[in-house]
Every structure is written in structure tokens, then in C-alpha cells.
Amino acid sequence: QVQLVESGGGLVQAGGSLRLSCAASGRTFSRYTMGWFRQAPGKEREFVAIITGSGGNTAYADSVKGRFSISRDNAKNALYLQMNSLEREDTGVYYCATGVSLGLPRDHRMYPYWGQGTQVTVSS
Questions:
Q1: Which residues are CB-contacts of 60 (< 8 A; sequence separation ≥ 6)?
Q2: pLDDT tens, residue by residue, 20-54
């Protein structure tokens, strides 16, 4: 059974930083693309960043490019998101997802496995 558990969210002032982690279990995750998505109240879930199984390729939403960095440690079955220069617009529930074996799809509907999410709140 696949399990994804996010951690690291919290309340931070604008301009600050947070590092999110996602612990994965249940299958060989090094074979799969993993990603971060977020959802603000009243809005659709949106793509943030994704990384291929080897970690060799990444993609970012334009809104976070240059501020966020995605990485993974396959030996630990872990996914990370370093978030710097946070803005109020970054507020939302952040989810990690996996289950895609090819490419870097940005559509959240492509991912069959999800964590429960971790809340990130950025105050001005």
C-alpha cells in the first residue's frame, strides 16, 4: 500500500523560508516522478514542482521559479521542497504526489497517489 506523508508546513512571514518533506513508503519510488501541488481556499489544485525518478529533470510553475527548489533522496524514499522568498500568494495546502512513470506531467489528475497535505500560511 502506497503511503505519502508530508511535513514541514507552518506559518511564516512574507520573505521567509520553509522546507517541506514527503516521506514515501510502499513501493520503489525511485522509478516514479514525484511532485508538489498546492491548493488555496476556493481554488483548484495547482502544479508547483515535479522531479523525475532519477532526480535528473525538474519542472516548476512560473510563479515559483527561482524561489522554490525540488529535490529527492531515493535512498530515503523522500521528497523535498525548499521554499524561499515566500509570498502571501503561496499560502495553501501543499500535497506531494507520485505514481507517474514517464515524463513530467503537470496535470494533477495524472497522479494516483497523494499525501494528506501540509498547511503553509504566509503572512504579510
A1: 48, 49, 68, 70
A2: 999 999 877 888 999 999 999 999 999 999 999 99
